Predict the structure.
Amino acid sequence: MSKNPIFITGVYRSGTTLLSRALNDHPNISVTYDTIHFMRFHYQKDRQLDPNLIEEIINEIEARVSRRSNAKINFTKIRTTLNASNNLSYGDLYEGIMKEFLLKGEKYIWGEKTQLAWSKIPDFLTMFPDGKAILLIRDPRDIVSSYKKFTNEDGLKYLDGAFTSLSSMNHSKYFEKCLHPENFRVIKYEELVSNYEKELKSLCEWIGVPWHETIIDIARYQDNYGKLWGSNSSYGESKKNVDRNSIGKYKQHLSKVEIYFIEMILRTSLDNYNYPYFSSHLSEKEWTELYQILDDPFINSRYVQWLKNNQGVEEYPSAPPRV
């Protein structure tokens, strides 16, 4: 098993891609860009691996990699190597695919970035006891604001970012108590972009690789096709440097009622991570708008679940294609 593979996850629009591109630029680390998604799509804790399931997983990953990147992976070699193994575990399968996909030249640490998979962090660390799991969190109001401009979801489904943020922040607080700090770290997006070099230096030390100053240069970052990344801002901005301009942008792009709704759902989580409240008392007209949000069938289903158990969700509003 690899000594310290890396697992990066978080809500959409939380900075997972930025961090993955920075670490991928390190000469000793290679991190996926929306290609494998092993923990999200393929790991099934309650289902034992068998030859048919292994082949099913490899076939789907092969199709997804072919569609989403220019990577050349020797899947025949992967199959041959895995078929020669007895009592294959999910960790063995995951490791075999990731090493063949990512570890070239001086790269000896592989990592996977996959959104909406924080509940799988303990399973990842069980498979890889020396692994490093990173959960990014961001001000939920900025997540919703960014997602509103970025998504193709219809209606009010962009507000689901409130419920995914709730789940990620609930899990992050729990994991900080029960997982060892050598294996698990929460990174706040705001701290990452405000102190980019400092945060990345700290991460390199934690992962156990030497510092390379080039990884702070966003102009070097590559996407899944090997082309220059150049950031994926929701606001149509082409960025050459990481900056703080995206912090608090929700104040310009969300209505008072939308902000009130998010703060209502996430009050405790905002307190836990020192995000100050912004909303104020609603007028009669604004209360009517809030009730209209709560009457939306999709939002109401999430809201009722929240009232029952204070739990969020770990999924997109509409399931994206696996391939």
In short: The first strand starts at residue 6 and ends at 10.
